[in-house]
Write a structure and sequence with these properties.
Two copies of one chain form a homodimer. Helix content of chain A is 43%, strand content 17%. Chain A folds into two domains: 149 residues, Nucleotidyltransferase, domain 5, CATH 3.30.420.40; 143 residues, Nucleotidyltransferase, domain 5 (2-Layer Sandwich). The first copy, chain A, is α/β, with parallel strands linked by helices. The N terminus of chain A is likely disordered. Chain A has twelve helices and twelve strands. Chains A and B meet through strand 10, helix 5, helix 7 and helix 10 of A and strand 10, helix 5, helix 7 and helix 10 of B. Chains A, B: It holds the Pfam family BcrAD_BadFG. Chains A, B: GO terms for molecular function: N-acetylglucosamine kinase activity. Chains A, B: This is N-acetyl-D-glucosamine kinase. Chains A, B: Belongs to the eukaryotic-type N-acetylglucosamine kinase family.
Chain lengths: 361, 361
């Protein structure tokens, strides 16, 4: 099938077939989590009481519709392609939910690559052209949605994301924010899936050329990659140095560590220290732990490295390490995905707004 | 000027203008050092005594002509482009020397990316089509030329190369060889110029986000790159992650260390350990130090990281570190470039051959 050229508007044709007038449609919220690997959009129903205004969101909120697309990071694919992906996945989600844009109360786009308010404003201005003027629009970095996925939409606490890459992001109740790591592998994100796997590959090369101790990682990784000698790892690595491809070796490192391999254990222990130090840096800078260091704060844990849930549980070790310094850290493994976190974020913004409006009237 | 399409042979047209018959021309050797950044070819005169055969090469041998071209690593630019570059730079060198291919006694091509004997044979077969049948042809990895540049062509000892990348290569007198590192930055070449600079960039990011101590590297590197905040380093790094661009930050790390910065000093001390461990691994595996660990062996030191020759002298520290384990290491900073090393290698091969021929007759 030939790909149709992108024509703004054509993707919204489905709306003409939705017969219900706006006031009969259920009010909905769109939450979108846009990463470098994929983009997920969800549509959730928004509950309003005729007298009290917005209701607290249920836990976890029901998802009316969900759609998935590719990369929407403008740094990776360019502005035009990123925008087409974002608009298309939102249209698909609403189409699946049988709702028009008029039924939408709020949209929260949480996309990677949004680091400055200039990024935020650029995306907001573009989004404004798609949705009717009554729709509230919010644009955030994707780590904010990850935090919100664990706090039911409340922007407070610290989130640690450790998948292919890693970042720690924190928010205070009065709106201050801080981050640590998230600078990519060249700039030292060592606790990430990529970082752990690259250390393991390095350990195999070092064992082979005599710089390091022997390790079962050699047999395990060569077998996994169908290679016959560590020399071949050089070719394998540089043939396609994509971070996700290397990060995919993480389970072999965990297995070797569980089987007692010293080198693999050392790599995972280092990663635990690295990940914990990112969180500690954020907590310290924001004072999330209070003056005496004992205050409670949510610590949301997201990403494949922290969810392994094996005997060697990286996430659990990271929490232990953080708790020694900050016993008030309340670890949360979110039950919903970050796209739902984005929707909850929009929900929360709407509630705050309605409270402000009520005070004013 | 329009670039002429490559037509095999046309580059050798100059030979028709050299009037001297072959027996009146001086016998010469071609030495070529082909790397990922550039390719250097030199032509040196070969001295023969009519009775004793080849004479020992002078120290250092005079260079009749020299030509430079771009990358000739077949992994980087492909086989066809690599061959055209190699042939063209050899033709240019001979043309400058006023010599024809008939005057050449031997050619040594030392090119990066030659790691297996299959690579060697492929290049030898191609080279055979360019030169008359009397010309002796040798193909080696470029690190072999670097070793030869310090040993007057003798294949014995260990060479440590530390420029943008790093590798240690060793040879025994009976022809065994071993290498360590040289696997690129993903696989842990930490003592390289790239490795040192990447650690420094990481230290700046860590100081900024609270994971690491403050360091003067921040001011020094941001000033050098004309950036105003460590946040901008992320964009700078991934905009063009070429290893040489990052490695070029090395002098700032050395300056900060010399001025007493603890973090910069730590990075350089780690690099020293890394570089020394590559050499130690090679020496150990080959037994270059003899059974009691006290034997003398040449240790050739090549590359920008080892030639800094500042107050903080990385090369000197590496030698100190190696000498503790292997007091017989004889450090050599070559007076000639690796292309001359390649020519010396060919010279040495010729002498060995002539001795063998003499024994046979």
């Amino acid at each position: 099938m030939k790909k149709r050229p992108y024509r703004n508007g054509e993707m919204w044709d489905f709306e003409a077939e939705i017969m219900k007038p706006q006031h009969q449609q259920q009010a909905v919220i769109l939450g979108l989590d846009g990463g470098t690997t994929s983009t997920v959009c969800v549509c959730v129903p928004f509950k309003i009481d005729s007298e009290d205004g917005p209701l607290q969101p249920e836990e976890p909120p029901s998802v009316l519709a969900r759609a998935v697309a590719g990369c929407s990071n403008h740094n990776s694919v360019g502005e035009t392609a990123a925008r087409e992906t974002l608009e298309r996945v939102m249209a698909e989600t609403l189409s699946k939910a049988g709702a028009t844009r008029s039924a939408v109360l709020a949209v929260c786009l949480a996309v990677s690559g949004v680091d400055h308010s200039t990024d935020q404003y650029r995306i907001l201005n573009w989004l404004r052209q798609i949705f009717p003027s009554h729709v509230r629009l919010y644009v955030q970095n994707d780590s904010v949605a990850a935090l919100a996925s664990g706090t039911m939409g409340k922007l407070h606490g610290c989130v640690l994301i450790a998948g292919t890459g890693t970042i720690a992001y924190g928010y205070t109740e009065d709106g201050r924010q801080a981050r640590a790591a998230g600078a990519g592998p060249i700039l030292g994100d060592w606790g990430s899936g990529y970082g752990i796997a690259a250390q393991a590959l390095t350990a195999v090369v070092r064992a082979h050329d005599g710089r390091g101790p022997q390790t079962t990682l050699t047999e395990s990784i060569l077998h996994a990659l169908d290679l016959s000698s560590p020399d071949e790892l050089i070719g394998w690595t540089y043939e396609d140095p994509s971070w996700a491809r290397i990060a995919a070796l993480l389970p072999y490192v965990v297995s070797c560590a569980e089987a007692g391999d010293q080198v693999a254990n050392g790599i995972l222990l280092d990663a635990v220290q690295e990940l914990a130090s990112s969180v500690k840096a954020v907590v310290q800078r924001l004072g999330l732990c209070g003056e005496d260091g004992m205050n409670h704060f949510p610590l949301v844990m997201v990403g494949g490295v922290l969810e392994a849930n094996k005997r060697w549980d990286i996430g659990k070790e990271v929490v232990n390490c953080i708790s020694k310094d900050f016993p008030g850290a309340l670890p949360i493994h979110p039950k919903v995905e970050p796209a739902v976190g984005a929707a909850l974020l929009a929900w929360n913004f709407l509630m705050i707004q309605s409270r402000k409006d009520a005070l004013r009237s």
